[in-house]
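Practice problem: Copine-8
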Amino acid sequence: MFRLEKPAGQQKPGRSGGFPNMASVGDFNVLSSSIPATKVELSVSCRNLLDRDTFSKSDPICVLYTQAIGNKEWREFGRTEVIDNTLNPDFVRKFIMDYFFEERENLRFDFYDVDSKSPNLSKHDFLGQMFCTLGEIVGSQGSRLEKSIVGIPGKKCGTVIVTAEELGCCRDSVLMQFCANKLDKKDFFGKSDPFLVFHRSNEDGSFTICHKTEVVKNTLNPVWQAFKISVRALCNGDYDRTIKVEVYDWDRDGSHDFIGEFTTSYRELSRGQSQFNVYEVINPKKKGKKKKYVNSGTVTLLSFLIETEVSFLDYIKGGTQINFTVAIDFTASNGNPSQPTSLHYMNPYQLNAYGMALKAVGEIIQDYDSDKMFPALGFGARLPPDGRVSHEFALNGNPQNPYCHGIDGVMEAYYRSLKSVQLYGPTNFAPVINHVARYAASVKDGSQYFVLLIVTDGVISDMAQTKESIVNASKLPMSIIIVGVGPAEFDAMEELDGDVVRISSRGKFAERDIVQFVPFRDYIDRSGNHVLSMARLAKDVLAEIPEQFLSYMRVRGIKPLPAPPPYTPPIHVLQTQI
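Answer key — structure tokens:
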């Protein structure tokens, strides 16, 4: 799976985003440095497949492909088993995939009737295929997607049902506490100042740091505080993967002395406090030099408690809808739309920066909205027929019903209004934020969450009112994404993005951080690959949404609804003429 990172040197300060170099298991990519949000297991069933065998029914297999972001190349991800003699297979072998809300993962399911033992697919009969995104499966009701199989002209190829199930281990956290006995004395004037460093092993045998305890001063028998770590960070959900623990003596100058190390695994630790969880701390150098060396002390597990946390996917599966609204800056500083220098220039051959930002973010979010109807607003323009200035007008020209169908409908309305309104000013954000907040205020039960995307070229005119709107909106089920396009200085926007300093208005602080700002120029791919630029932008602006969503639900004590019961469609037996 391709992972796209923000270009080097542009990561925001104050963001904790996990430890560096935490790669996901699977198709490793050098650009990668984030842990997958979670893992999902895909189950595949088909109904009424084409029958390609003369004397019996087809022997189907399903082959899953994923698509690379840059060059759009399809790569085989895996295959199910072959099921003999059926047109209604329920495949047993599952596909386990990393899931990121902020990425668009294109999938292709190909079906074949297997005629021999050859692994070469061209030797078997093609039964059709189905295209979708991972978000489409997860975002469907009950995370269950049913779609027609296509690919053989003039034939009904049947249907495929794909169900996504979040793997339990991904949302477990563990609360652990350790103590040590008779550690080696490393300090000349006092005892040691010990601390522990935990590493999880990677596929290639290397180790990645995943936790450090605090330092306990001047003791050879320390008791460290209990700490909480996700199972994903500790062992990436693999219970038998090696966990290496190093013991150090802390030194002020940073040259910490190595006392020794031991290895364990999640499975061993999960036995809890017992004789199995007392570990000898071994210093390999000492062991090699001293014949009588026994150990450099012992470390004991005092407690081990598993906690399961509710996840973003639990809410989506329980039916929570993500409502997406866009607001576009129509101020005169964007330049005359008929000129190529304008940020709103309608180039017949490629999207402008506004179009790219809308498409990048919208194409991912639309998978989580069942009716795919999105309100699209504009601000900072003079409207026909009387030339009044509006900071909250419907792009489709219908203030009573500003909804557009899908992202393509939003793009169409955007291009249409460019031809009818006059770019003007000033740049006021508060009206569109308050517009979405009015809707969000009417559904606080967790059934809906609102995301507002504002695309703007710059300097904001109503800073005080916008801050007040954001502080008020932070109590509501909504998040705001601001994408800055063009060359302007965006210092004021950084202030709205509460990553470093929480935003406040009239002495009141925002209840949660709900704003994410990024300048689009940071994501422009130097080779001119717009697909890559859009993927990078979407990844960064959407990465915070699941956590902002969960923070609202936690503060309000809203639990996810149970998923609807799995629906098993009746198997239709095709009547064949004899």
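Discussion: Residues 406-420 form the longest helix (15 residues). Students who identified this feature from the tokens alone can consider the problem solved.
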